[in-house]
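Note on ligand handling. Small-molecule inputs were canonicalized before submission; formal charges were left as drawn, and no protonation-state enumeration was performed. Where a ligand contained multiple stereocentres, the stereochemistry in the source SMILES was retained. For zinc ion, this procedure yielded the string shown in the input block below.
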Amino acid sequence: MTFTPWKRGATALEHTWQRPSWHCRACGRAWPCAPARASLTDDGADRVSLAMYMWGNLDRAMTDLPRRPPAELFHRFVGWTHTDQPVQA
Ligand SMILES: [Zn+2]
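Structure output:
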């Protein structure tokens, strides 16, 4: 039997953002990528807390990516957190 106490955390850490590009460290796509969104909503995460967390990331991203349209960044970071649809990885 293999002991992997941080397996789940390690998976979440793989798909994390890197600044200032806000691309995923693991897959290189715009963060939050699909695996990151799935991880963030795993176990029925509280959507309000998730939205607040993502709002903080949006605030930092708007500083790092000042030329990106604010509406696009809002949808990318916060808009998806207010859906009732399950997130596909
Ligand atoms: Zn990723």
